Amino acid sequence: MDSVLVNENPIVYPKRKRHVRTDQSNTDEFSVEPIDQLDVFDHIRDIKDPEYPELSLEELNVITEESVEVDDEKSYVRITFTPTLPHCHVPNVLGLCIYAKLLQSLPRRFKIDVRVAPGSHVNEDAVNKKLSDKERMVAGLENPYLVALLN
Amino acid sequence: MDLMEKNLELLEVQKLEGHTDRVWNVSWNPVSAHADGSLPLLASCSGDSTVRIWEQSSLSHSWTCKTVLEESHTRTVRSCAWSPSGKLLATASFDGTTGIWENYGSEFELISTLEGHENEVKSVSWNASGSFLATCSRDKSVWIWEVLEGNEYDCASVLNGHTQDVKMVQWHPTMDVLFSCSYDNTIKVWWSEDDDGDYQCAQTLDVSNNGHSSTVWSISFNAAGDKMVTCSDDLTLKIWAADIAGMHSGEGYAPWTHLCTLSGYHDRTIYSAHWSRDDIIASGAGDDAIRLFVDSQHDSVDGPSYNLLLTKKKAHEMDINSVQWSSGEGNRLLASASDDGMVKIWQLATNP
Fold it and tell me: Has keyword Protein transport (chain A) (predicted)?
């Protein structure tokens, strides 16, 4: 990684209050409770930004609860994230981290789509195309640098 | 024979378990009965970096895992293909290499490793006579390898032209014409005019010739080789045709033209399409379903059209990455490979 950070002065957002869930995690394979927006958000909110390992994607406003669209019946999840800068060169890595975390956390019946928010990046179409190519994403996840980052 | 009239079903014959990660590709050994008495074989390859060889018992007709080809590729094995003689298996891997394995009856031995691509190899294909191999990669190139004596493989050509990751290569079934499809949304046709091994891009099928509007994942030819089907992330299958009779009689290159587009049937990426010897097109998609299509045989002013014969929903629990018809006579077997780690064998049969 370059020693010069792309975004030297990221805006840090206050973490939103977490809802206290009285029921246990309902994202195991055999759960009958439908998976909702907050369940999915809880899986990804604390992912650390690749450039700022002390800060989470939630704190950087890369994702919010509204970033998550879930349809439990159709087993479909879509995450729309906003890179911190429109020229940011790490959206692929951000998208990969989100995708990887959801692959690990959600029941395997789920189809996961990750994309950047419309208007949030100069190479939006190119970035979204890469993020929607499962083969590219999976090959990316085999990259030792990324494996280290995700663990 | 009008298949639409019959009450057909795709029946699950067997589920083959063993891979510990997603299965990317399956390949039927083209020789269904071997002269030395050995049994029908199916190869599958996976994100677990291995290739499994499945064998069918002549007594029980059930399939078991004969052998696991492991400790060679260090990353995902993305594609596998048997040579026309059925004696060799080529395996393409994300580790950048292509393995060539020889079938010694009870064992498989890695006899050669083809290196050269700069990154992940996505697909491998043998030509009809087994004299050439083609591979393609995320490095945007297509390589042609010549098969020489003594297990030697020589790089005959490096074909540049695609502007992005090349997903699949497929030799034409009767002529030494090579096809490739890519993340750049195009299909390219590579041909050597003088048969001197100097391959050039003879044609590019893109949106201007009614081509796909997103990544093209696979190409398959009908038995005669005068039609092909391609499938894409744009959620369509496209049928193409060429006057190959002219090419066979030396009249030069015959261009491929778009015949029809099958749209509205898929709502997730179509990863694989395969054209059977008896003219049934199977598709495998990201919605976990297998679909079968046949020529409607009712040409309209707009040209030929295809009908959906049947949809097998939830054929697997996750995305289907590969479908392939067996080339055996009369049995209409289909193999499928999925992200769920399973290989399944299906039979197309009339519902009693």
Answer: no
Amino acid at B132: F
N- to C-terminal Cα separation, chain B: 18
| Interface test with chain B among A74, A75, A136, A138, by most B beta carbons within 10 Å | A138
Which residue bears the tokens 């499938």?
A: B231
Beta strands in B128-199 (DSSP E): 132-137, 142-148, 152-159, 166-171, 178-182, 187-191
Domain boundaries, chain B: 18-276
Query: Is A142 close to B94, i.e. CB distance below 8 A?
Result: yes
CB atoms within 10 A of CB A21: 11
Q: Which fold has domain B18-276?
A: Methylamine Dehydrogenase; Chain H (2.130.10)
Cβ atoms of residues B191 and B134 within 8 Å: no
Best mutation target among B22, B74, B215 (most A Cβ atoms within 10 Å) is: B215
Nearest of B30, B79, B117 to residue B321 by alpha carbon: B79
Say if residues B134 and B171 touch (Cβ distance below 8 Å): yes
**Distance from B318 to chain A by nearest Cα, in Å?**
6
Say how far apart CA A142 and CA B78 lie, in whole Å. Answer: 13
User: Contacts for A10-17 with beta carbons within 8 Å, 24 or more apart?
Assistant: A10/A49, A10/A51, A10/A52, A10/A55, A10/A60, A10/A84, A11/A60, A11/A61, A11/A84, A12/A55, A12/A59, A12/A60, A13/A58, A13/A59, A13/A60, A13/A61, A14/A59, A15/A56, A15/A58, A15/A59, A16/A58, A16/A64, A16/A65
With a cut of 90, say whether residue B10 has pLDDT above it.
yes
Confidence of residue A2 (pLDDT cuts 50, 70, 90): very low
Check if the beta carbon of residue B140 is closer than 8 Å to that of residue B201: no
Query: Is A135–B317 a contact, with Cβ atoms under 8 angstroms apart?
Result: no
DSSP letter string, A59-96: TTTS--GGGEEEETTTTEEEEEE--SSTT-S-HHHHHH
Which residues 65-94 of A are in CB contact (within 8 Å) with B? none
Nearby residues of B37 by Cβ (< 8 Å), 6 or more positions away: none
pLDDT band at B227 (very low <50, low <70, confident <90, very high): very high
Task: Tell me the CA distances in angstroms from B328 to B94, B161, B277, one per residue in order.
Answer: 31, 36, 9
Instruction: Tell me the pLDDT tens digit for each residue of A74-119.
Output: 999 999 999 887 776 678 889 999 999 999 999 999 999 999 999 9
ipTM at complex level: 0.95
What's phi and psi for B221, nearest 5 deg? Answer: -105, 155
To the nearest 10°, the Cα dihedral for B116, B118, B121, B126? -30
Q: Give the CB-side neighbour count of residue A67, counting CA atoms within 13 A.
A: 26
